[in-house]
Each structure stands twice: as structure tokens, then as C-alpha cells.
Amino acid sequence: MLHKTQGIVLSYFRYRETSIIVRVYTEEFGLQSYLVNGVRSAKSKSNRIALFQPLTLLDMVVYYKPDKDLNRLSEVKTNHPFQHIPFDIAKSSMGLFVSEMLTKTLKEEAANEVLYQFLVSSILFLEEAETHYENFHIAFLLKLAFFLGFGPANAREFEAQLQEQKYPFLPDASAETALNTFLRQPLGTPVRISRQTRAELLDAVVAFYQIHIETLGEVKSLPVLREVLM
Q: Are 208 and 110 contained in the same domain?
């Protein structure tokens, strides 16, 4: 049966010679995988694979069967063409990092309207922000942790959980203030921290996720993000 839904591209991988399997977090069905045939062939419609770049926001008509691990797309188009994320190196690096973390952490194959709207509004913030997005990746992950069931109440709780696992995190006053702002205030709230503090907070947040998600493993986009933001 065909259904209309919106979705957020998380990642894709090549399948056979001309096809891909794309992972999409959908508004109606949660996490889904779709087989897209012919998208990598020379005869494919103009650059159709661009629709499946990480974090692309889609309008879709899909085939859906709840007992199937792999479904198909009938129609697909972007509902918000990006003008900045793919072309700004800082934003694109954050986007790749965020999409990898979402791929590794989102597992639920059921609708979650509140989570979906949080993801869309966060992506649109990154796309449209002209200033105060340098801490986006850190604030986003701290807020996402609440939807995943392990968000810390404050900086002290965050610090305590890391120290229980022997992670050497000893934030100074500026780092602690930043953490509390990221946890309590909207994305884009100005927070002035040094590049070194930003790098330390990023590593600590990834370690925090590794404590709570044993299967997280290596975050391959992390070295690139560090390099771009240092």
C-alpha cells in the first residue's frame, strides 16, 4: 500500500551496480530502509542521487509493509533544498557528523512526532543560521540524548557519569556554564568558549554517548570535524 510521509535522510550505501539502499527517519514510520534502483546509472535522471545526501529533507510516497525490513519509494522530492549545508565546510562537516550519530543511535521503527519535529527544526537551524552555530553539534547531541532516554539534568550530572566510567573530564567554570546553556537553552543561544574547550566538550559528549550506547563504536566523521573546527 502507498503512503505519503516526510523523511530525513540519514545515510545510504551502494547496492549492486546502479542502486542504493537509503536509511531515512520518517515522520510516519520511524526508521526505514528503502531500495532505490538505477540512481547511480548513466541514464539516471539529472543528479537524482543528490536527493539522498545526509540530512536532506524529503517528501515521499512510499510502499510500506510493517513486516518488511526493506521497502521501496514510489515518488520522492526534497521539500527544502539546501543552499548552505552542502557548500559551507563547517556546516557540511557538522552535518556529516550529526547524520553519522543519528545513523548509529536511531533504531526505533515507529513514529515519534516530537522527535521528528526536533530533528527537522535542528537541521533547518543549521541550514539557515548566519551566526552562533559554531556549537551546534554539541548542543544538538546533548538535546538528542533526552529523546534517546539518557539526557543529563545538568553539567554536574554529565560530569559525574563520565567520571564513574573513568573518563578524565574536569570542566572549568566556562565549560560547565556552556554545558548548562546547551542543555537548557534553545539552539543558537550564544555561548563564548575557546576552541580548545569546544574540542574537549565534543570529545566528552561522544564519550557520554559511548557510555550509554555500547554499539556506538568509532565515529568516523569525528576527526574531520575536529580538523575543520580547530
A: yes
Task: Look at residue 164 and tell me if it is in a domain.
Answer: yes
Query: What are the pLDDT digits (tens) for 84-133?
Result: 999 999 999 999 999 999 999 998 888 999 999 999 999 999 999 999 99
Q: Residue with C-alpha cell 551566526?
A: 131
HSE (side-chain half, CA atoms, 13 Å) at 73 = 26
Q: How many helices (H) and strands (E) does the chain have?
A: 7, 5
Domain that holds residue 214: 89-229
Residues paired with residue 15 on neighbouring β-strands, in sequence order? 19
The CATH number given to whatever domain includes residue 58 is 2.40.50.140
Per 3-state DSSP, the chain is made up of helix, strand and coil in percentages (nearest 5) of 45, 20, 40
Global pTM exceeds 0.90: yes
Q: Is residue 83 part of a domain?
A: no
All three cell numbers of 107, joined, read: 533504531
Instruction: Write down which residue in 78, 109, 139 finishes a domain.
Output: 78
Strands 30-36 and 57-63: unpaired
Nearest to 28, CA basis, from 149, 98, 109? 109
pLDDT digits (tens, 9 = 90+) for 68-80: 889 999 999 999 9
Distance CA 1, CA 20 (A): 22
Question: pLDDT tens-digit profile of 18-34?
Answer: 899 999 999 999 999 99
Residues 50, 139, single domain; the answer is no
In a domain, 84, yes or no: no
CA distance 90 to 161: 30
